[in-house]
Model the fold of this input.
Amino acid sequence: MDDLQGLDGLMPARNPIAEALTGPFARRGFMMTSLMTGLTMAVPHGASAQVIHTDTAGIEAGEVRIPVSDGGIPAYFARPEGAGPFPTVLVIEEIFGVHEYIKDTCRRLAKAGYLAVAPELYARIADLSKMTDVTAIVRDVISKAPDTTMLSDLDATATWAAGQGKGDASRLAVTGFCRGGRNTWLYAAHNPSLKAAVAWYGPVTGERSPIQGLTPTDVAGELKAPLLGLYGGADTGIPVSAVEAAAARAKAAGKTVEIVVFPDAPHGFHADYRPSYRKEAAEAGWQRMLAWFKANGV
Done:
């Protein structure tokens, strides 16, 4: 973006992007000005041997801030070394924030050749690094996050990726886990530039509110990109029948949707830091995701 010069050159040049990255978050009401370190403490962790750690050999990775309408949000990116541009994947967090599991997911995608970026979508509402009560997170954070803001922040992240992030705007995908899977459905119905979407065990129904007025089932017929849904047959919170109904609604509208159900997998089967992790299903789902991206031009 070009600098904006002051009148008659008397004022110093302004760089709006730099100001968004370095300006005082407190004045804009942000509760998180940087990402948490380590793993969330809001859920029990599985055996330490399960936790996957992806190194940074051959990739670049780190924390950035994404310029948004009211300031900036912290985010984590990872991409291959080199000039790019790289196919881009927006990674949407669970309800627990952009913690080490989400960061590692970005690094895994970078190893596969992608620019992956995960914005902290709840930065305005709470500091998730300090929250340990799942009920409180849902009640005080998730329920208070407007979908319009979530979609706008993801748009801003895609814009950042195509500019400073060295991403290719013509090869854009999105993936998300749990609540992020739900938001993947919504974003796939929102952004016409999207080429592919992969939702990991995202709820397709739920309570509506003035700030969260639509469910994935509501928007299934409006999908703007092919969507792959990866679900667990042993997920007690997301009936497979509901997922299949959402997919049927999309297909009736001429949309491309594929649902894969891993029969014995519970909710959160990709989350290697939790007892819900199922290695075989997680790895099979990952390969299906990469194949879905490739088949749809990302």
User: Anything to note?
Assistant: Helices lie at 16-22, 100-111, 134-140, 147-162, 179-188, 216-219, 240-252, 279-295. The CA atoms of residues 257 and 271 lie 23 Å apart.
